Amino acid sequence: MNIFDFTVLDADGKEISLKEYEGKVILINNSATKCGFTPQYDELQDMYEKYGEQGFVVLDFPCGQFGNQLPDSMEEIVSFCDSTYGITFPVFNKINVNGPDESPLYTYLKAQKGFAGFDEEHPFSPLLKLAVSAMDPNYESNSDIKWNFTKFLIGKKGNVVERYEPTTDMLTIEERVDYLLRE
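The structure assignment produced for this chain is given below.
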């Protein structure tokens, strides 16, 4: 089993097989438009523009499970991503990444790569730890998604290579993407 075995809904509610992305290096991201990490959209778009023609794609999954930081409608989300950040990579339908209604894709991703901690150097880390521990005092011991803009890097054959928390420096992710594209 790999991510190409999953079907998801696009922003219009149409079923899309992730098999469409077979042979590409993929960065799967859960997002929210009103989050302190939302400016990462700029860096994600830059990375997509830089490496897209080489076989890289960002797949964005809006999620409203963290701090109520996502508008209700997909139209608002898509409009925001386009007008504010000029997003040209695929934005999919809203999903849950944790809990009984979580997306099967995220159940799989979390089973492949668990939580490995926040980057202590990131200025948001202390506040993020405080917020996450208030929701789950044992957050460090489970693989749940902790916040918006958690990313999973997928290799060309659909294998989960790495999990990045929202505090991970985007340059670290870009270096790994570049490496996987040259493999």
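Interim note for the steering committee: Residues 170-182 form the longest helix (13 residues). The two ends are 21 Å apart (CA to CA).
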